[in-house]
């Protein structure tokens, strides 16, 4: 039960921080200036999977990235909470974070691919 509470609290905390410091300012910048730089998650989706920003609702994509990033961090915290020993925690945390992030953003790609929002229909 403690693990579930830790997971939920981590998710909510990270999502609120992400919303305040990354998503909200990005929405304001995007509305004011069309040449605004995208956040790292969106850059990754564009370069790795050829996401077509002309077809996508940018605010929806920001929200999806915020939810997915918060979920990723909460999962990593939940996994690391079960491991004991500093070095092992670091190793498990790094490797689980990499795997979870790659898989979650691949799922976002599959979601937008199904909707037909990928350039040329293929990714690199």
- Helix fraction, binned, reads over 70%
Largest sheet: none
Secondary-structure content class: mainly alpha
Q: Can you count the helices?
A: 4
Layout: helices, strands, pairs:
Elements: H1 2-32, H2 40-49, H3 58-80, H4 86-114
Helix pairs in contact: 1-3, 3-4
Structural description of this entry:
Helix 1 (2-32) packs antiparallel against helix 3 and helix 3 (58-80) packs antiparallel against helix 4. The chain is mostly helical. It has one domain (2-121). The chain has helices at residues 2-32, 40-49, 58-80, 86-114. 15% of the residues are buried. The chain is built from four helices and no strands. Helix content is 75%, strand content 0%. The chain is globular, with a radius of gyration of 16 Å.
Give short descriptive properties of this protein.
single chain; 124 residues; mainly alpha; 4 helices; 0% strand; globular
Brief account:
The protein is mainly α and 124 residues long. The protein is 75% helix and 0% strand. The protein contains four helices and no strands.
